[in-house]
Write a structure and sequence with these properties.
- It is a single chain.
- This protein is α+β, with helices and mostly antiparallel strands.
- The protein contains eight helices and ten strands.
- The protein has two domains: 64 residues, Winged helix-like DNA-binding domain superfamily/Winged helix DNA-binding domain (Arc Repressor Mutant, subunit A); 158 residues, Chorismate lyase-like (Chorismate lyase, 3-Layer(aba) Sandwich), CATH 3.40.1410.10.
- The strands form three sheets. A six-stranded antiparallel sheet has the order 4-5-6-9-8-7. A two-stranded antiparallel ribbon has the order 1-2. The protein has a two-stranded parallel sheet with strand order 3-10.
- β8 and β9 form a beta hairpin.
- α1 crosses α3 and α2 packs across α3.
- The longest helix is centred in the N-terminal third of the chain and has 14 residues.
- The protein is elongated, with a radius of gyration of 22 Å.
- It starts with 9 loop residues before the first helix and ends in a 5-residue tail after the last strand.
- Bound molecules: 2-acetamido-2-deoxy-6-O-phosphono-alpha-D-glucopyranose (16G).
- The site of 2-acetamido-2-deoxy-6-O-phosphono-alpha-D-glucopyranose has 14 residues, from α4, β6, α7, β8 and β9.
Length: 240
């Protein structure tokens, strides 16, 4: 398996081998890996080389380390296509995961100037401010703060906010959500965000801001999301 005469670096051969086992499902999420020493003995390579391969796989999100316990196979990252304008609920269902929300905050407040501009409404008009932890199979994936005009989206309740906002707008209010503009930025979790997302403070996250519109450009939401970078990757089809 490891070919010492190959021009391909040994750490890279080991990295490929382990990645292969994960991709084929021979190593499954939660499985623990042999100790560095065992790899080193089995393949007669240095522990430094083993560490280099494992560190690369940790950095790429395939493995994670628990201090004093060893190295384990991470959950597969969720691939999110950037083409379709989908809701969190739809994304999770499409992957066979059970979507959920934990409502942290639900309040009808007067729009600040910033929020009023984003929603193209007058300052101080009522908006719903909704903060939710978004869950997949009960695991926190993202933290979302959404602003919605209360004049446009009537009758919003905590119960609805605990479910799908897009489904409510489309199925109950017959609004046609049409397009959105989205900004994605890499960042690190604050202590507060980390607590909700059950990750370490300073762990990598992606911050996404979405402005969503009806066909006639009426804004339906202004949403700020913090997605766990260890569980998500974004995929986009591009054409030359
Ligand atoms: C997604 C959207 C968010 C929207 C939510 C609605 C991103 C980055 N954000 O999380 O803007 O409010 O879906 O989901 O994708 P829901 O219909 O399940 O409430």
């Amino acid at each position: 398996m490891i070919n010492k005469n190959s021009p391909i670096p040994i750490y890279y051969q080991l990295e490929e081998h382990i990645r292969d086992l994960i991709e084929k499902g021979e190593l499954r999420p939660g499985d623990s890996l042999p100790a560095e020493r065992e790899y080193a003995e089995t393949y007669r390579i240095s522990r430094m080389t083993v560490r280099q391969a494992l560190t690369k796989l940790v950095n790429d999100g395939y493995l994670y380390r628990l201090q004093g316990k060893g190295t384990f196979v991470a959950e597969r990252k969720i691939e999110k296509a950037l083409q379709g304008l989908t809701s969190f609920t739809q994304d999770m269902k499409a992957r066979g995961l059970v979507p959920g929300s934990q409502l942290l905050h639900f309040e009808r407040v007067p729009a600040t100037d910033v929020i009023a501009k984003q929603l193209a409404i007058q300052e101080k008009r009522p908006v719903y401010e909704i903060k939710r932890i978004r869950l997949a199979d009960k695991v926190p994936m993202a933290l979302e703060t959404t602003y919605i005009s209360a004049d446009l989206i009537k009758g919003l309740t905590e119960k609805i906010a605990n479910q799908s906002l897009y489904a409510y707008m489309e199925e109950q209010l017959n609004l046609r959500i049409d397009h959105a503009s989205q900004v994605i930025e890499s960042s690190i979790a604050t202590q507060n965000e980390a607590d909700y997302l059950e990750i370490k403070s300073g762990a990598p996250v992606m911050r996404i801001q979405r402005n969503t519109y009806l066909q006639d450009e009426t804004p339906v939401e202004f949403a700020k999301s913090v997605f766990r970078a260890d569980r998500y990757k974004f995929v986009v089809q591009i054409k030359r």
